[in-house]
């Protein structure tokens, strides 16, 4: 058969049909792309390499390092500057009250942040700076005041004020920063990578805490830095600030965010198409690192090149405090039950951790922080505090080990089993420590603290991710756009993190009074009772996604 010129051209489809086919193919690809867009305008995240997840987890390493320094030294520092007992509870109340009120507001604000750098990272950077400022004040407050004020009475008063201010600022920022970090992870990772990321967070949280407690347990007075700087607290601050700055920098450069940009309240979360029969503008915006929404509504008979897609609704607009509270109160019951169980967990954990080094110094070693600094009682107390740091170091190491074991145990016992075991082992361990305050048994049982720590940092947030995944699936089954619901991940993580502040408020009101009356021994007994109550709540009230 001879192929003539006429038969060759006759075998080809008309140019109009080719253009139409190309247009349809491009449109199909674009519709698939649009279906991968979430409510916030971000593309469904691709798989992340392990190195990026490790870099992202470095923020938890640095944060927990600084937390370990605070847990080990804040009580001795406050007592050494002469803080009256009746003001002790006030220190633990101011920061959590501020956090409990402002945490959901920050979470909602980060959900709608339009900074070109991303939605979460600006908040993480700002809170990191506040953490450094607070740590500088409470570890160096007395030295700073003595350099400017010569009168001893005024020195004592201002040293107490500056130290209290430093503790409040540090607690405020360190508690706040966890929510944006978790929301940042959820934004930039797929569901499988979220699970990996949470485990890496727990792993590096334990490692950071171990290094922080180890730094506090060492005697720096006989080292070069100890001779160079004015006090041991300044040496600790030098290491803590250096570690945190490095970790924060690595974290902020770990995974790029897709910024959310919109021109006004009526046009956010929308996408504009600019060329006739083409949707390449969206792809170009994604390549440039952001989406620029400009149109306002879907038009059924839109003109070519002006077609718009909208997912913006009234409840997606920037929230005021009133609407924010309404959103929190209207959360599904399983979210509220999860928050209550998280509250029980943190009440038990903080009740033990905040006073543990003091418990070791006063109850286990029978020392006294109020004795003269050159007396045997005070030196015995200081030895107990250092041994308490070693106990907390054991806790941090066991937290890292258990975070790895969680991945092995999860397929067999599920999230419910992990949650239940964490609370149960912690409750039994703290109860035994309170009943038998022996040095060796206490240090051995400190390993159970790490099980609770790893549980609190992973399982509740894992459940939040499961709840969101389930909601997304139900939306897609109903033919709605995935991710189109009233709450963002930021506000859900913030609501969960708020339980830490609420736990501190409750402990600040009640536990401080109990400690002043009955001594530090009451803290571990209280921790045991609350953990066992939370164990029952986790078993019977929290909902688990099958």
TrEMBL record:
InterPro entries: MFS_trans_sf. Pfam families: MFS_2. The keyword Membrane applies. Its main location: membrane. It is found in: Membrane. One of its GO terms (cellular component) is membrane. It is a multi-pass membrane protein. The chain crosses the membrane at residues 65-83, 89-110, 122-139, 159-177, 198-215, 235-252, 343-365, 385-405, 417-436, 442-465, 493-515, 521-545. Keywords: Membrane, Transmembrane, Transmembrane helix, Transport. One of its GO terms (molecular function) is sucrose:proton symporter activity. PANTHER family: MEMBRANE-ASSOCIATED TRANSPORTER PROTEIN, SUGAR TRANSPORTER. This is Membrane-associated transporter protein. It comes from Phoenicopterus ruber ruber. The lineage of its organism: Eukaryota, Metazoa, Chordata, Craniata, Vertebrata.
